[in-house]
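2024-03-11 09:14:02 INFO queue: dequeued item S41 family peptidase, len=433
2024-03-11 09:14:02 INFO validating residues
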Amino acid sequence: MRLHILASAVIFGIGAAALAVSAEGEDRREETFRQLELFGDVLSRIESDYVVDPDKAELIESAINGMLSSLDPHSSYLNPDDFEDMQVSTTGEYGGLGMEITQRDNLITIVAPFADTPADRAGLVTGDRILAVEGDSLVGATPTEAVERIRGPQGEPVTITIGRDGEDAFDVTLVREIIEINPISYRLEEEDTIPYLRVTGFNEHTTERAVEALEDMENAMGGPLPGLILDMRSNPGGLLDQSVTLSDLFLDGGEVVSTRGRDPRSTQRYNARPGDILDGAPIVVLINNGSASASEIVTGALQDRERATVLGLTSFGKGSMQTIVPLRGGRDGALRLTTARYYTPAGRSIQATGIQPDIPVSARQLDPDAPLRFTEDALRNALINENGTEREEIAFEDIEQPPEDWPEEEDYQLHRAKEVLISMMERQSAQLQ
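2024-03-11 09:14:37 INFO prediction written
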């Protein structure tokens, strides 16, 4: 039954494409159907002649995944279990290690660990490769397959093998936890004078929790917040609507982001409502090369609207939007399909280019011979920037780096963000007097 369903999905998808191009000529339409016939011939030959009896459902599922992964790194097929896991990741909790992963150069690569999770506490970082789970290689595995191997019941240990630039591969044994997807953490810095808000992801509760955090800090300070550090470093993104509503908190109306698909008529614009929750108090946004997708939408909106100063390193550069298309109501899983690009209020597409900070600052001493290259444009089949713009790395000498004797355990980017915000708050206070 599952084979029939999956095969139908392949035939429907290719058949739909054939109908869509019929207006462009009968020859092209016939060629599409010849390819369908070729697919059927190959499947039939595998079924009859392969050395062992193959799992036919897996063959079809692999064919669907191959078709989608040839488009871009973010389009994929979600079988029913994967579809359920995806829904959990945006609404609830799961047993796992707490990290966002992707596939790069045929290796499972960490986009970012989530704050205060086993992955984060073990010191895993953006760009680490997961080479194996319990000694079984993940080389060539899809992110979906890796998730199936990494996740599991709470309290169970799992050993993963990590590859890191400049080091020999090493094993890390972690204990799976229930990953409660709380995307917000906050505190008052510098003797309770500087509000700090960290956003680690964009799920259904991000904006709601951000409002609660801002209100808590306001109550603790006994009045309006004088400024804010908004930390979105290593934030892999999430729900588009939450990036819009979070931006809305700090903007007094106007455009946040627009999305444009293949059909120009599909363009959508998302605007902020009147009212700024900080009433114009200065904001410093922290980003790095692990800041992707929804976090780039927020950063781009606040930067273009001159609402915030951006500090850190150029962001990841994922400027595409994926639509989840349930198949038969989700009973046959779903397609995750790239359907649009998004644009900042100034009309910038950041696909493959990322957002450059206003103040380039590194968290650590950089090696000029080993530039940061864990970026969207380095992923296999990544979409190019449709404006022909290529990613520009900031010149090494233009990036401020911590002093050589700077303590490793201290966050230099945050240190500089606090200095910048204090200066901005002082200027604003002087203007109001």
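2024-03-11 09:14:37 INFO annotate: Confidence is low (pLDDT under 50) at residues 1-6, 14-22.
2024-03-11 09:14:38 INFO item closed
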